[in-house]
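Long-time lurker. I teach an intro course on protein structure, and each term I like to show students one example going from raw sequence to a predicted 3D structure in token notation. This year I'd like something fresh instead of my usual example. Would anyone be willing to generate the tokens for the chain below so I can use it in lecture? Attribution to the forum is fine with me.
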Amino acid sequence: MKHYERTREHHTSLPWEPEESAAIELVHFSASYGGRSVLHDLSFTVPRGSIFGLLGTNGAGKTTTIKTLLGFRPPQSGVVRVLGYEVGRQQQAINALVGSVSEQSSLYDGLTVAQLCRLSSQLQRRWNQPLVQRFLDLFALPAHARLKTFSRGMRSQVALCLALGHEPELLILDEPTAGLDPLAHQVVLSTLIGEVAARGTTIFFATQQLAEVEAMADQVAVLHGGRLSLYDEVDQLRTREQFVRLVYAQQPPAEEMAYLRGLPDVLRVEQEGRAVRLRMAGEAQALVALLQARPYALRDHEVVAVPLAEVLLTALRGEGA
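-- Reply from a regular --
Happy to contribute to a lecture. Here you go:
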């Protein structure tokens, strides 16, 4: 694309080449707030057309990341690009291609939904009102009701509809289902997956909810203490780790337990009498074959994939493999 060619010419000193397939690129990105370091040396890429989840607890740095992507806060160090443009230096080009719903989103309480749509259409170079109306209808939002009568969740839904009005290439969402009741929560998720992503729009969302990552994301990055503790494709994470239950003929001696704990792919070892439970990465059957050749009689074994939620929780605790 032409804008990539221009930015490559302008930034010949960059230590990396922008990826044309990337919607978002963070390279050694760090940020501080109030003199306190908040984000430390983050590097990850969001492919175009993907749904990417940024998972973290309160204070992990999710909102700071989003504020940076939207141009509200410059990077302290590193490079941040959105759709090939450098954040802060080419923000006008970014804003024309990005829709967002965040705590920075402002809605005028005294206006009706219809009035907000007209106002938003005047602020954008292009506007697809039939598309906006389709989403308003999906969320059952009354066009002639004033925003001040809406709940927090309904206001978030209005903001989402307006963010989609100019048909952005990238949609950035901060806690997209916060304040929604269970039914509205499901409608928003199904809309984002079945309607928005299906149009080819890249979705980048920050959340505290494991279930949202499991339901929506193609890729996930997990923040812990402002650092990246996990970054991978969700499908890879579903099969990356296994629980292996080993049953010996007799209680395994200390020598065998030390051997198990020293294996490079074994992440955790728990013993209960003759049974040993391992959490491991890598090929479980190869490990079982190795143990069967050892002098301690292995009677039985069972291999079960570690649930995705448990993998994500481990990363949230900063205990990544």
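Some talking points for your students: Confidence is low (pLDDT under 50) at residues 1-18. The longest strand covers residues 22-33.
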